[in-house]
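User: ok so my PI wants both of these folded by tonight, can you help

Assistant: No problem, let's get them done. Here's the first:
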Amino acid sequence: MPTIAASVDDAVASIPDGAMLVVPRESSGAPMEATRALVRRGVKRLHLVALPTSTLQADLLIGAGCVETLETSAVSLGEFGPAPRFTAAILGKTIRMRTRPARRSTPRCRRPRRASRSFRCAG
């Protein structure tokens, strides 16, 4: 039976150093309190996957030194300009960046050659 965490800190306690963490874009309701809890705990070497892009959430984690690898198509603060910690990390080469074009964020699917109603997908 699932348990409900007593606090946000308890909820993110199971995320270890070096984990792959997938986060939604900010307009999808990014859990910023969970982000702050990870920063407070000092988690390190995260492989952050931001689909399709990220904003303040990724910038905070990068600035706090939590991210080792970032996989996304962009990090921007929108009308507020470039994400400063992301920009500094890229220029300083302190994080590894793996670009992920928006069209490849989902598996590639194609119809097989023979007549069939199913699709084959490759990640």
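One down. Here's the second:
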Amino acid sequence: MQHDFGRQLADFNSRPRQNNQPLRVDQPQSERLAVAISRQTGSGALRVAEGLAEYLQAHAPHAEPPWRVFDRTLMVRVLEDHQLPIRLAEFLPEDAHNTVDDMLQELLGLHPPSWVIVQQSIETILNLVGVGNVILMGWGVNAVTSKLPNVFHVRLVASLEQRIARIQARERLSPKAALLYIQRSDRGRARYVKRHFHHEVSDVLQYGLTINTDHFSDAEVVRLIGDAMVSRHRSAGAGVRSLVASETHI
């Protein structure tokens, strides 16, 4: 059954933004599963997400739509959904600028106010998890979907040494530059979630599963998440049981 998310969000989007209040939305339910991944920079999350999409697709019924991954492409999807220029994505990393920069860029017309983008991203996130069979990262997806029973919440962490090594290889940076990249990225994500949702990304109680990727291969992390999803949703609704039905093949 499809849900009309636009009507449920209309009242929310019409309210003035209160800086001292976390953003709130009605969170409709879906019959299909979704995954929200929080990660430390350099913990290998994108490779895991792509592997998990393949794993879940392989164990899903043939009639199920394909599993999709949204990481940096999530903001591109937000802009597409709201008929905004895709080029704005380069100006909209996860809270990489401060409030003063945000005001200046708004005045210069570089992008809409950040609170508008946040509301639009919430709508897009809820639309995606409403359809289901998606793996989402970034933009407060764990906070936005925290009360949705069809969404499995995961946190990926790793030692600083391993994260620096991954970022060095991926971005071709020196160890010092890789460390600064990690610190800036992690601070930005934490600040974004704290500022807009009053959540702490490091709070392990938000997640159904937290994995230190130092101790497992990508394939092992994928299997851990996949098995945990099956166990978590074993007694869920009919749409969720479509994945559980394949449990004997996992």
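The first strand starts at residue 34 and ends at 39. The beta strands are 34-39, 68-70, 134-137, 151-157, 209-212. Good luck tonight!
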